[in-house]
Amino acid sequence: MCLFTVNPFPHTILFMTKSPFCANWFTMGRTPRLVFGVGARTSVVGLLREAEIARVGIVTGASSLRQSAAWKELLNALADAGIAWCDFALRGEPGPAFVDETVQGLREANAQAVIAIGGGSPLDAAKAAAAGFFLEGSIREYLEGVGSRSPDGRTLPVYALPTTAGTGTEATKNAVLSEIGPSGFKKSLRHDNYIARVAIIDPELAVGCPGMVTAASGMDAITQLIEPYVSTAAQPFTDALAESGLMWAGRCLERAVADGTDLEARSGMAYAAYLSGICLANAGLGVVHGAASPAGAAVEIPHGVFCGTLLAASVRLTVERLDESDPAHAAALQKYARAGVLLSGRDRGSVAANCAGLIDELERLTEAIGIPRLGGYGFTADIARAVATRTDGKNHPLVLDQESIEQLLLSRL
């Protein structure tokens, strides 16, 4: 994929009259300005100068990026442009304490923007800190389901440079923060204005990403393409994006895991992950992500591992229980079948065969790229039961009861 840019989609409300593909109105949220392609990272300083920004905060992960040539390249370019910076290194997943500390640092530096570089965690932390710059008190007070205050939408502009292809958070309006433990949480800070000003997606930034992180991130992206595609809130726009993303993920994920220097594979996965972020933001998610939040609050497990290890099992359970005599269920089965064709690159000739093909491909892929089971992260039957009680099926095409969700989790211990 070559270098290209896409201007932001404005927040749009479309009304569709009854037609074969959509009988209801739907909305599409704003998207960032997109700069995509190998070498795209070099555009960030020019974009800052274009916006007359002279002071920035930088949020990154704690290790690999800071030892890379790309990190030195960025700091040298900022210095040459006369742009001052302060930087913050996140270790692990972001919690309110890290965000609050970062907010204080941004205020002391009188920052005008935030550069976010890393996987989903640094990007979430950066988005939360950019918003927290304008909020009173701890960011914890503004988290959905945790605090009692509502964010007002003010934010420093965020320039997001993902180094993994998975979460798609560079395209979403929320930032996920967590605290792990018996009374822990994994909740979002959310507002339409919290979408990054620019998403700068340079597949070369992912070249040093370890194979296991590439695998888990990629399975997260696939989950975030399939769940919105079959969602009860799906719509033609996101369907088109999901189909494109699934095709590229099917072509590229195994290649990216096997050879991290394969820039075509890295590009395909970066593109799929970005589309997955737009899809989830506009069409919602399903039972896998519904369980991921309480699971991530209970034990320290990479989000992509959790989603990746459950995806095939959740699709199998859902397909087995969908009733093709129900029009809504039949439509979901057709979409699962289409996803099977796109992901595997093979049409098996019927809805039933292609649904089976999707399950087979997801199970094969899970094993081929080495996605671990839940038990390796301290997940137990008791934790599975507790997570099942707190799982929101969200927009899943089939309502699953607590016992079914618990059995789903137990099947991957």
Brief characterization of the structure:
By secondary structure, the protein is α/β, with parallel strands linked by helices.
Q: Mind explaining what this structure looks like?
A:
This protein has 413 residues and is α/β, with parallel strands linked by helices. It folds into two domains: 31-205, Rossmann fold (3-Layer(aba) Sandwich), CATH 3.40.50; 211-410, Dehydroquinate synthase-like, alpha domain (Up-down Bundle). It is built from 13 helices and eleven strands. It has helices spanning 43-50, 69-80, 96-108, 120-132, 211-229, 236-258, 263-283, 287-298, 303-321, 327-344, 351-368, 381-389, 402-410, and strands at 4-6, 12-14, 26-28, 33-36, 55-61, 84-90, 113-118, 158-162, 174-179, 185-190, 198-201. The protein has a seven-stranded mixed β-sheet with strand order 1-4-11-8-7-5-6, sandwiched between helices. Helix 4 (120-132) links the parallel strand 7 (113-118) and strand 8. Helix 8 (287-298) packs across helix 12 (381-389) and helix 12 runs antiparallel to helix 13. The longest helix is centred in the middle third of the chain and has 23 residues, at 236-258. The radius of gyration is 21 Å and the shape is globular. Residues 13-20 have low confidence and may be disordered.
